[in-house]
Q: What sequence folds into this?
């Protein structure tokens, strides 16, 4: 059964870039986040939330249709596989991707997620997960969707409720 990447809990992201470094290290043997196939962006300053820009594993991928050289082929379960030898860096796929999930590397080759899932193993907050899909990319019914966010502790919670001790620092 094929799998694909899913942003399961976006609000939990702390922008640590661990996922990006894991991706770059795995596929480019560097830790330069420029080579990552997943991108973490701030939504307007570090005091706001983070956005995870990842391939949505399109079933009928616009990026593939836009490639004039046939460098992209359909991946089982959604998304595409890239043939680097064929790619000439024209950038048509970048323009076609509606979520901005493609960029070019230093050799002018397309950088596109292949849904390997290595990023999920390095995310400390389960923001990312791999889900099983059928060959056509349909999500299996066993996927239960995002985990319910509990949010920050109630502003009315006492110091003791939060930390198990009174504010003085002494255990009661
Ligand atoms: S790279 Fe973009 S267009 Fe291509 S399959 Fe992923 S989300 Fe779809
Ligand atoms: S950059 Fe490469 S993969 Fe993308 S459309 Fe051009 S030739 Fe195809
Ligand atoms: S590893 Fe997880 S928490 Fe860190 S930037 Fe990536 S998605 Fe966000």
A:
């Amino acid at each position: 059964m094929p799998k694909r990447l899913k942003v399961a809990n976006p609000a939990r992201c702390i922008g640590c870039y661990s996922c990006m470094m894991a991706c770059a290290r795995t596929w480019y043997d560097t830790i330069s986040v420029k080579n990552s196939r997943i991108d973490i962006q701030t939504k307007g300053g570090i005091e706001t939330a983070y956005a995870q820009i990842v391939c949505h594993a399109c079933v009928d991928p616009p990026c593939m249709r836009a490639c004039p050289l046939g460098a992209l082929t359909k991946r089982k379960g959604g998304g595409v596989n890239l043939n680097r030898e064929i790619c000439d860096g024209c950038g048509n796929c970048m323009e076609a991707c509606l979520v901005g999930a493609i960029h070019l590397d230093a050799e002018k080759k397309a950088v596109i997620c292949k849904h390997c899932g290595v990023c999920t193993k390095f995310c400390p907050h389960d923001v990312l997960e791999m889900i099983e899909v059928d060959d056509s990319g349909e999500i299996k019914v066993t996927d239960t969707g995002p985990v319910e966010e509990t949010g920050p502790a109630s502003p009315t919670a006492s110091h003791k409720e939060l930390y198990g001790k009174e504010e003085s620092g002494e255990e009661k």
